[in-house]
Specification:
The chain is of the alpha/beta class. It is 44% helix and 12% strand. Strands 2-1-3-4-5 form a five-stranded parallel β-sheet. A two-stranded antiparallel ribbon has the order 6-7. β1, α2 and β2 form a beta-alpha-beta unit. The chain is globular.
Length: 237
């Protein structure tokens, strides 16, 4: 089974790196850090490389251990978390040069670019997949790991509002709450915090909005230049 192979590769590797997609969200950052904690529970250490991320996630455990880049030229194992394709993987040169690669994701568009791929498109968040992986690996969930996982679940489900939410989502959340994970705090930090870039994007969208069919249809747009400008603001925020 793929999970058995993944566990074997983690146990064999001495130098491990964890990567995620560009412009990372809560599921990407939380998932990467949760994966780092899981690797540590297996007696290993891992570098998490994320060049840029929003400051709103500064509350996450071990966030200060995230690296912009690494001096390591070749890792024994590279793990991609929450990224559907190699092209969008930030710092993908570390993935490309690694001796072995693993992809953990929940996007149906994933093109299985790793040596080992564990993809569940039914899962509403990659962090939810990590809970089931921890259970399979017999890794006990901790409050720190749970905080990272809950951040991914909350952000990728829109605060439990999206259609992809399943009974498992609430069962996992209840389990994490029992561990002492502060769900209201995570919700406030992730769903209640808006950056300058968020406001700028909202302003542009509203300014361009047109109402059609006597107000029954709303139309607006955002072009590539808008995305570039907003991303630049996110990097500075």
């Amino acid at each position: 089974m793929t999970l058995d192979e993944i566990l074997e590769e983690i146990k064999k590797a001495e130098k491990i790196v964890i990567l995620t997609h560009e412009s990372p969200d809560g599921d990407a950052i939380g998932g990467s850090l949760a994966m780092k904690f899981m690797v540590q529970e297996l007696g290993k250490n891992a570098d998490v490389i994320i060049p840029e991320y929003p400051r709103m996630f500064g509350f996450l455990p071990a966030i200060e251990e995230i690296k912009i880049e690494s001096d390591e030229k070749e890792y024994d194992l590279a793990i991609s978390v929450d990224c559907a394709n190699f092209k969008r993987l930030a710092k993908n040169e570390y993935f490309e040069k690694a001796k072995k690669t693993i992809v953990i994701d929940h996007h149906g568009s994933n093109n299985m670019y790793g040596d080992l791929n564990y993809v569940n498109p039914v899962s509403p968040a990659c962090c939810e997949i990590l809970v089931s992986m921890a259970e399979y690996f017999k890794i006990p969930l901790t409050k720190e790991m749970g905080t990272c996982i809950m951040t991914g679940i909350i952000t990728d489900t829109g605060g439990f509002r999206y259609m992809g939410v399943t009974p498992d989502t609430f069962e996992y959340s209840a389990e994490l709450l029992r561990l002492g994970v502060d769900i209201p705090k995570i919700y406030k930090q992730t769903m209640g915090t808006k950056t300058k870039a968020n406001f700028e994007l909202t302003k542009r969208v509203i300014d361009r909005m047109e109402l059609l069919e006597n107000g029954k249809v709303a139309f607006t747009y955002m072009n590539t230049q808008d995305e570039l400008e907003v991303n630049a603001q996110i990097r500075r925020s």
